[in-house]
UniProtKB/TrEMBL annotation:
GO terms for biological process: lens development in camera-type eye; visual perception. Residues 51-93, 140-182, 218-260, 327-369 form the Beta/gamma crystallin 'Greek key' domain. GO terms for molecular function: structural constituent of eye lens. Keywords: Repeat. This is Gamma-crystallin M2-like. Belongs to the beta/gamma-crystallin family. It holds the Pfam family Crystall. It comes from the Eukaryota.
Length: 372
């Protein structure tokens, strides 16, 4: 039998709030809770004061899982939640021992096997299979992720045998990456290779690695590549202690720009000692048309409001072109405002590559407004 060296925090605390921005009825928890419904009906914001926590969408530690460490989460998007439903939670201690597990490409520990003792950002590159059907965690705590580079749904695994993917709560055997659950030493908000400088409004090139961000006010689009190219991340006011919190695929931010907004007060975003100041704000209407085919062909429908599920209203899963007539919008890869994001300004987009899309599939979209 394996013995694990574990050190508990002297006091672990998490606070759940029914309202966004830590408003409304709250519940303070310092240990495992298999049923939270008697304490709060919904959860729209969370403060983790200390400890490491796994939150579950359903009672008795079932449903989607969200792994949180110390920090503030002003609404459920900040913990990558699919909704505001948290029905159980449990605390686990920092672990200081070794890490070891074996993964298998068939159930009941059958087929190809490989042993790991470190993180794996892309399982297919090392395991040569896209699915894990069973695994044996012999030492340490691990997190499975649905997609490579620690993206998508998360599954928390404690030491033990998992004979099938349902044993760890998986929706399917597909696992894109995994890593050890360790206490992370956060790096500075931004690591700057050159001397610190001040940028205003937008920047086509930001030659820095970015591991955390604090947005004091305003709305911003960050890009993985220079000149507003690559994956996009839309951020509003809040703290993002690591790149997972803004749903980043890595720590690479190469350009950014400010989004005009309804709020009249000055807009600031702090990235370590770098400061960007906005100067103009949008106060108008919102209107756009989406099309089934490129160059504004095929079925068309006009929108002036948010759409949590494109297929329910458009009856197509793909948008090949669109005309943004008024306002600023965000396209999302999946329904309910999940997945990759694409920021669209007024203008004509004759094909999905014009807004930086990897494919024409858009699951939802909404107006760029004050979410609070």
């Amino acid at each position: 039998m394996q013995f694990f060296l574990m050190t508990f925090f002297p006091f672990c605390k998490i606070v759940f709030y029914e309202g966004r921005n830590f408003q409304g009825r709250s519940y303070e928890c310092s240990g495992n809770c298999p049923e939270t419904f008697s304490y709060f009906r919904c959860c729209n914001s969370i403060r983790v004061h200390s400890g490491y926590w796994v939150l579950y969408e359903k009672s008795n530690y079932m449903g989607y899982q969200y792994i949180l460490n110390r920090g503030e989460y002003p609404d459920y998007r900040y913990w990558m939640g699919y909704n505001n439903c948290i029905r159980s939670c449990r605390m686990f201690p920092p672990y200081r021992g070794s890490y070891r597990m074996r993964i298998y490409h068939r159930p009941d520990f059958g087929g190809q096997m490989m042993e790991f003792m470190d993180d794996c950002p892309n399982i297919y590159d090392r395991f040569h299979y896209r699915d894990i059907y069973s695994c044996n965690v012999t030492e340490g705590y691990w997190i499975f992720y649905e997609h490579p580079n620690y993206r998508g749904r998360q599954y928390f695994l404690t030491p033990g045998e998992y004979r099938g993917w349902r044993d760890w709560g998986g929706m399917s055997p597909t696992i894109g990456s995994f890593r050890r659950m360790r206490k992370e030493k956060h790096s500075p908000l931004m690591q700057v290779s050159s001397s610190s400088s001040t940028r205003t409004e937008t920047s086509r090139v930001v030659t820095i690695r970015c591991n955390s961000i604090r947005v004091d006010s305003g709305y911003w689009v960050l890009y993985e590549k220079p000149n507003y190219m690559g994956y996009q991340y839309i951020l509003n006011r809040g703290e993002y202690p690591d790149y997972q919190r803004w749903m980043g695929y890595n720590d690479c931010i190469r350009s950014c720009r400010m989004i005009p907004h309804k709020i009249i007060s000055p807009k600031l975003i702090y990235m370590y000692e770098q400061k960007l100041v906005s100067a103009f704000y949008y106060r108008g209407n919102y209107r756009m048309r989406i099309y089934e085919r490129a160059d504004f062909g095929g079925q068309m429908i006009e929108f002036m409001d948010d759409c949590p599920n494109v297929y329910d209203r458009f009856h197509y899963r793909d948008i090949y072109s669109c005309n943004m007539m008024e306002g600023y919008w965000i396209f999302y890869e999946h329904p309910n405002y999940r997945g990759r994001q694409y920021f669209l300004r007024p203008g004509e987009y004759r094909r999905y590559t014009d807004w930086g899309g990897m494919s024409p599939t858009i699951g939802s979209f909404r107006r760029m407004m004050d979410f609070y």
